[in-house]
Design brief:
Length: 207
Amino acid sequence: MKTGRAIGLPLSIVLATACGGGGAGATPVIAQSFCADALFPDPSTSPYVLPYPPNVSYTMFQGNCSQLGGHRDTFAYDFSHGMGDPITASRAGTVIIVNDNFSDDDHIEGHENNVFVEHTDGTVVRYTHLMQDGAMVTVDQQVFQGDIVSLAGNSGNSSGPHLHFQVFRSRNFDKSNAIPVTFRNAIGTARTNGELIEGQVYQADSF
Ligand SMILES: [Zn+2]
């Protein structure tokens, strides 16, 4: 589905990478303190639900502040969506950015397809690595929690189909502006603070 594009944002920032297979590199001292200070919202009252339909399960295979790849020094979750699987709105809001023109298997950083949705408190979620022509919403559209926003894909710096899910404090999409989130409908083993654990399977409960 052909859609709009960014409002007032340089494309280079909009398309900044998400996941990817960067090497391990040096010990991320800064990342550890950044992550150690994380305060996760109480999952029972979280405004977020898992970004897929009720009764569906996926593995969260790369989580917050992972030592590898694009999750270093930032908060983000990767879910094991397959090609074309529906991605649903984790929270209601207004679509502010849509790009879905990149092909699914070129593996080039910066070629990520995205939908960005802004919430009423100013936070913004990005749904990333979407399927080419897979966006199901347009800029300025209001979405309700649970609405399908896109189909999952493998665009950009990605080694296989999945969803990169990341929430920012504001319209600053630098990874240092990402914030920790929890999901109020996640069925599965999480940390006591509600943070999802890499390698665990999470089923979406009805909400
Ligand atoms: Zn990711």
